[in-house]
């Protein structure tokens, strides 16, 4: 299910009934557009591995590095700011969260999320 998000049935009785009937206990779902799949993979890689290699990611997703960077609105100036703050180290091929940047991994990942750009809604914030 790498092309969608799915939410299980919340009620345990309904969940178990569906499982016992050999059905997927999905209450609702959302199919991802190709750009959303790329964004999800980039953010997941950063959040889980504290680093990303653009060539490895491109190979895994069967797209070009340029396509990934266009999709996530790659902004080198923003990365320079994060690097100056000591949160990341990056070059043309990769980006890595520094030890000092680990508590701010969500902030770094948000820099690669096109949905977060120009969004004034409030989300949970790191301390």
Explained architecture:
By secondary structure, the chain is α+β, with helices and mostly antiparallel strands. The chain is built from 6 helices and 5 strands. Strands 3-5-4 form a 3-stranded antiparallel sheet. A two-stranded antiparallel sheet has the order 1-2. A hairpin with a 3-residue loop joins strand 4 and strand 5. The longest helix is centred in the first third of the chain and has 16 residues, at 34-49. It starts with a strand and ends in a 17-residue tail after the last helix. The model has no long low-confidence stretch (mean pLDDT 90).
Spatial arrangement of strands, main beta sheet: 3-5-4
Question: What is the terminal-to-terminal distance?
Answer: 33 Å
Q: What are the secondary-structure elements, in order, as H or E?
A: EHEHEHHHEEH
Helix count equals: 6
Quick structural overview:
The protein has 127 residues and is an alpha+beta fold.
What's the layout of helices and strands?
Elements: E1 4-8, H1 12-20, E2 26-31, H2 34-49, E3 51-53, H3 54-61, H4 65-71, H5 76-84, E4 88-90, E5 94-97, H6 105-110
Antiparallel strand pairs: 1-2, 3-5, 4-5
Keywords:
alpha+beta, single chain, two-stranded antiparallel ribbon, 127 residues, 6 helices
């Amino acid at each position: 299910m790498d092309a969608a998000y799915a939410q299980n049935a919340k009620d345990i009785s309904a969940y178990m009934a569906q499982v016992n009937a050999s059905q997927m206990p999905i209450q609702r779902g959302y199919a991802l557009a190709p750009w959303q799949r790329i964004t999800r993979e980039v953010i997941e890689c950063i959040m889980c591995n504290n680093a990303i290699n653009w060539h490895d990611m491109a190979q895994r997703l069967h797209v070009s590095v340029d396509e990934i960077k266009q999709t996530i609105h790659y902004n080198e100036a923003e990365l320079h700011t994060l690097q100056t703050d000591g949160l990341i180290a990056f070059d043309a091929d990769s980006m890595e969260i520094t030890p000092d940047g680990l508590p701010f991994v969500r902030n770094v990942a948000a820099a690669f999320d096109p949905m977060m750009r120009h969004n004034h809604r409030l989300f949970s914030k790191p301390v």
